[in-house]
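[09:14] KT: can someone run the structure on this one? pasting the chain below
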Amino acid sequence: MTTDFRKEPEWTAAVSAYEWIQKIKNTVRYPDDFQIVRVVYNGENDITDLVRKVRPIIKDDLPF
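[09:31] RB: done, structure tokens below
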């Protein structure tokens, strides 16, 4: 997923955080009740709600 940090800095940070959290979650095998408690970037920008709203884009390349 690509976004432009200059145009939407918080959304871009949220997407990056979501992708990073998913990688960790898949690597460590957290339980199904895993919750995002707080996400902050640059030490002061709370983007927790935005990260919770991010959803993956599923590419539909099926032939039918």
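[09:33] KT: thanks! The first strand starts at residue 40 and ends at 41.
[09:34] RB: yep, looked fine to me
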